[in-house]
Amino acid sequence: MAEWTFPVFGHGGDYNPDQWLHIPGTLEEDIRLMKLSHVNLVSVGIFSWAALEPEEGKYDFDWLEHVLDTLHENGISALLATPSGARPVWMAQKYPEVLRVSANRVRNLQGGRHNDCYTTPVYREFVRRMNVALAEKFGHHPAVVGWHISNEYLGECHCECCQEAFRSFLKEKYLTLKALNEAYWTGFWAKKYTDWNQIVSPSPRGETGIHGLNLDWKRFVTRQTVDFMRQEIQPIRRLCPDKPVTTNFHGGHMLEDLDYFKFQDVLDISSFDAYPAWGSGDDDKTALETSFNYDCTRSILRKPWLLRESTPSMTNWQEVCKLKRPGMHLLSSMQAVAHGADSVQYFQWRKSRGSSEKFHGAVVDHVGHEHTRVFRDVTQVGEYLEKLKPLVGSRVPAQAAVIYDWNNRWAVKDAQGPRRDKQYEATVLEHYAALRRAGVDVDVIDEEQSLEPYKIVAAPMMYLVKPGVAEKLEKFVSGGGVLLMTYWSGIVDENDLCFLGGFPGPLKKLAGIWSEEIDSLYPDEHNSICMGEGNELEIEGEYECGFLLDLIHPETARVQAVYGSDFYKGMPALTVNDFGKGKAWYLTARPEERFLQALYARLVRQAGLKPLLDSVPAGVQVTSRVKEGQLYRFIMNFGDNAAQVKVPASQDAISGEQVLGEIELSPKQIRILKQM
Ligand code: GLA
Ligand code: ZN
Asked: pTM surpassing 0.90?
């Protein structure tokens, strides 16, 4: 593994000079504009395969060498990409097996991007040769500070070659067909496999109902993608082992298809591409969703990460492609830094003249000069990042975490019942938001991460519990941790087989309850959570709840609140179980936001955490970064109104001004305060 050692915040973005090679003078003009806008790091070669290998086996690296030399002469560094995000047309024409086969078993035609089989030896060999050549030629180029592997890996292939690899994966995992049949519960509907070759990937034209198979297929797709990436980086590790590698993650809720936590071993630094729909209604909510993605990206390696892509103005694929309002570019860029990013990068540097992204926001517009609002906004971010230099490499010291697990995501969605849309992602986000609103930094981790750094952990809807996880949670709580679990937890094991002997399965002892049934309500139906007299959280009153409602019996747990209506009126709605030195809470239904906020404000205190601010007004979000014991607070107002915040004695990291006590943040304003 190599460390990311870039000494300043990286500012720049996807730079695609190969689209402009036929227009002389563009590179020189780009350099002039990059310097003006304080750009110091660009990603080159992301979709450059056709320019790098115009004909099979004939490499043309001269243009790239000239670009890298020129960047270096001008003090600009580069992340060098491997071009596997899109292959040249000639390759698909001559070797059609490089094209993907969809789940309905039809081979794709040449087109688009991210349309390659990750298994076929033909494609792997093309990629290997290309990456070897790039690493040999540019591995030690002084402009290259790291590698950008492929682009936004995604998707799956169902070709024969992938089916073979899938079966090998299953053989390795189960060893015998008997074990596989048991794990897949194939006694149901006469599904028993009698030959390994009968097993194929799920298909809308065939099998979709074996949940264990569905899960294994998704695991395989992640494994195969990671394996492909491992092969991509092999020559880089060999030829330039000091250069760190990254690949860009993406997705509104982090892409569902690939379990990003499984990339831990192949990444030196994680990266994310963010395209929030600012101005689409509630910016505060959009900001929370975005910060969730950022916190997850950071938590994968638990260290600083790269904002690899974002738009300097509009995002052309959104339903309504709204411009960023004044102030929004600075705020949204700093938000990534606030959550631990060591770069702010854009898609893309120069707006393409043609094809599908010709209207996507870019730093340099079709007009070609610097006298634009967007260019000024970008320049301002560059100036801010320079002033923040002392923070490079600083950590976000989260002592709270929310568990968000891809296996669980897949399994929750696949189950028929207890309602169609179980809203796992939305639910996790609600818990995350309430924790953030309590004014603490939050990590977003999967079930397998260690819980060592944390004092409070939220584990909403932990339907699928992997082996060892219950024991880990028990250890966490018995050591003094505060854990919150909810309804629809501890239902199935890693093969999606229900736990026998009472829910929440392996979490039963920790929760100190038994869940007998679960009810599901229509959207306009509600029950209520009635807080018990003298409950230990000192929360009073009644709160609305609904969606999914667990009917539980306390065993060792103490009841803190009960349902207010229906045939289960009076049954527990919130319990707490003392477990060693800590406490395990169990919430039985999906409550209104007000309740979650009250709950987490108390639980954070119970866990002994000190919020970053005494109170966080609506619309305001706060994070911190720490370096060598020095704390910086990022206070961001995503709301549409001015907000008052009380801060401890601090110095503004941008203006140098000293502040103490109540300060006002105008709408979309950010303050970065160094604790004195
Ligand atoms: C993704 C891709 C980029 C570009 C942007 C546009 O993140 O990685 O190549 O297509 O979307 O928003
Ligand atoms: Zn394939």
From this structure: yes
